[in-house]
């Protein structure tokens, strides 16, 4: 008789030929999802954020484009801002879409750019650096101090948004920036004639290096060219479409032709490599921090009048120039960089003065008894120079605001302090040496 194995505490279970699962409970999937989201709080926060963002953009009112009269929403405004300034973050463009006045709402700061200024310790460059730092950008100054001076940017030492690199742009440089203002080059006849080979290398090789940098890192590049590209012009006033009348083998060619080549390189990189470029043709500029003895007519006259020396006029004094104050130029450069037009653009004051008229203004400002002394004219000196700034007015909304009679006293004050301050220091040093001896 067979035995049976029985398990304690277990009753025999009836067998069934069919399987019948438990009936589904209503809302079981929903309750499981809720429990999961409560355990994973981060996911809950993400979903809530998406819901809030969807709600905000759904009720955001459309705004009217004042220039075209058509309705635009936040996305189209953001896209247009990004097209105007591709280096500006999209988030910033979205902020601007809430404010049609172009101003940043209270409590929200503009995102600063990282900018390199070659020749930033020079006369124009240092004033440009001041403006960029003041508006919240981080600035890297690159200068070899051939004509630049540390004193021009020393007031920024200690500022965490300011850096100074002693470097010659003829040698390659690796940086990560959003914009490049390329100002590096001696700009006065005394300086660029002193070493003409170095001058043309700066214009050509230096510009190549900075354009190559702009291409590699995707930065916007602004070249400061010059009115000297027009040479001794046969067209007056000079417009940007005029090709100029330049002596390619003259004593000024290292600068004139160097800048013309720099413009060529800039446009070739723009057309061939897609680099965002801007070109400014700068006319005679004056103001504080100019080199005192750089051979340019305004600084010559001011320094001579302060030192009680005759004002030296070359030739018959009927050559004409136009003079813009440095703050006007800086405003034009920034507008050009931030705008959407390549250029070239003339940046200068169309107010035209002969050299004799300028000498008389300096006499009125400094010393009415200052004498005028005539000397033989220099080689290749242009007879007339006056910019046509119609293009800058229409496309950049820019025009100079400071007249010569208003700007000259500010320059004179700076020159007086530097000239007589230096003299006092020299006299004090001489007295100390004599006493010690």
From TrEMBL:
Where found?
Answer: Golgi apparatus, Golgi stack membrane
For the NAD(P)-binding domain, which residue ranges apply? 117-411
Keyword Cytoplasm annotated: no
State the needed cofactors, names only.
NAD(+)
Key words, A-Z: Decarboxylase, Golgi apparatus, Lyase, Membrane, NAD, Transmembrane, Transmembrane helix
Q: Does the keyword Lyase apply?
A: yes
Chain segments annotated as transmembrane: 42-60
Under which main EC class is this enzyme filed?
lyase
Look up the signal peptide feature and give its range: none
**InterPro entries reported in the protein's UniProt record:** NAD(P)-bd_dom, NAD(P)-bd_dom_sf, UXS-like
EC identifiers of the protein: 4.1.1.35
Top-level division of the source organism's lineage: Eukaryota
Q: Which terms does the record give in the GO molecular function aspect?
A: NAD+ binding; UDP-glucuronate decarboxylase activity
What are the GO cellular component annotations? Golgi cisterna membrane
Quick one: which pathway? Nucleotide-sugar biosynthesis; UDP-alpha-D-xylose biosynthesis; UDP-alpha-D-xylose from UDP-alpha-D-glucuronate: step 1/1
Comp. bias (Basic and acidic residues): 1-12
- Give the residue ranges for region: Disordered: 1-23
Q: What biological processes does GO assign it?
A: D-xylose metabolic process
Q: How does it sit in the membrane?
A: Single-pass type II membrane protein
SUPFAM superfamilies linked: NAD(P)-binding Rossmann-fold domains (SSF51735)
Any Pfam family from its record, for instance, is: GDP_Man_Dehyd
Q: What's the family?
A: Belongs to the NAD(P)-dependent epimerase/dehydratase family. UDP-glucuronic acid decarboxylase subfamily.
| Protein task | Catalyzes the NAD-dependent decarboxylation of UDP-glucuronic acid to UDP-xylose. Necessary for the biosynthesis of the core tetrasaccharide in glycosaminoglycan biosynthesis.
Q: What is this protein called?
A: UDP-glucuronate decarboxylase
Species assigned in the record: Lactuca saligna
